[in-house]
Amino acid sequence: MVAGTAPMPVAIAQRLRQVNWLAAGAFTVGGTLFALGAAVAQIGSGDATTAASIYFAGGLFFSTGGYASLLGAINALPGVDASGTHPARRWRWWSYEPQRIAWLSAFVLFAGTLAFGVSLLHSFLTGLTVQEVNRQIWTPEMIGCILFVISGHLGFVELCHRRRPCLRPRDLGWWIVAINQLGSVLFMVSALAAFTRPVTGSEINVAVVNWGTLTGALCFAVGGVVQAFERPAGSEGG
Questions:
Q1: What's the CA gap between 185 and 87, in Å, rounded?
Q2: Fewer CB within 10 Å: C terminus or N terminus of the chain?
Q3: Would you say residue 45 lies in a domain?
Q4: Alpha-carbon span 223 to 64, nearest angstrom
Q5: The pLDDT value given to residue 21
Q6: DSSP calls for 83-98
Q7: Exposure pattern of 71-87 as b/e (b: 16+ CB <10 Å)?
Q8: HEC profile for 25-42?
Q9: According to the model, what pLDDT value does residue 39 have?
Q10: If DSSP states are collapsed to H, E and C, what string results for 125-171?
Q11: Residue 4: left if φ>0, alpha if ψ -120 to 50, beta else—which one?
């Protein structure tokens, strides 16, 4: 806690820890389900609807984790005011603070999960043309991947206080960002390989799609487990 500032109310500190655990659990379960869906798709042990259903369930957990992360950023320890004390503290369910890197990173991550949700929902549609598949499924998936990578970069900016990533192996928060960023890059590779070529009507590389999704999802699952051990910023008051 910053010297000379008022302590955070115990109720806020407790909620910060709770939403951190919620985000950690949601990303762990969501990542596990995404990995399972990719395994089902790769092995061919189920039809397309089975894999899509598993992915969609995982997407719901990802969105839950994204919003929980945003709640943590919204209610984390703020800067001091002109008097040198913290402003009045109350729990907030929403805010708009793009000037705060932590908030921006969490918001972009949440937006990415919603983009994935649009893609996953459209994946249940049948009889789509190649152009419709690329527009309704691949495009929002690609947008989600881009937003995930941007969020991870902003996470490094927040941790390192500079635009280039830093190396802090003794910092638990750094590991969480690094593991999730690796998962985001793997998701991006998977999405690029999932583009459906108009000439052949098939994805660029199905194996890369499935393995990229599986390994990227496992990164988020591991990142979720690690996050459960992190003490959220500003929760020391409890």
A1: 38
A2: N
A3: yes
A4: 15
A5: 97
A6: TSSPPPP---S----T
A7: bbbbbbbeeeeeeeebe
A8: HHHHHHHHHHHHHHHHHH
A9: 95
A10: CCCCCHHHHHHHHHHHHHHHHHHHHHHHHHHHHHHHCCCCCCCCCCC
A11: left
Lowest pLDDT segment from 57-66, 68-77, 108-117, 149-158 = 68-77
CB 51 within 8 A of CB 41: yes
State yes or no: pLDDT of 8 exceeds 80.
no
Two structure tokens written together for 77: 């320890």
84 within domain boundaries? no
Q: Burial, 110: exposed, middle or buried (Cβ in 10 Å; 0-12, 13-18, 19+)?
A: buried
- C-alpha to C-alpha distance for 186 and 201, rounded to whole angstroms: 24
Report if residue 58 sits inside a domain: yes
3-state helix, strand, coil in the chain (%, to 5): 70, 0, 30
* Residue 90 is assigned to a structural domain of this protein: no
Tokens of 78: 């703020």
- 190-214 in b/e burial notation, b at 16+ Cβ within 10 A? bbbbbbbeeeeeebebeebbbbbbb
Total number of domains constituting the chain: 1
Q: Which two tokens stand for residue 138?
A: 């691949």
**pTM (predicted TM-score):** 0.89
- Measured over the CA atoms of residue 135, residue 136, residue 140 and residue 141, the dihedral's sign is negative
Give the structural domain span for 232: 10-78+96-237
Dihedral through CA 173, CA 174, CA 179, CA 183, nearest 10? 100
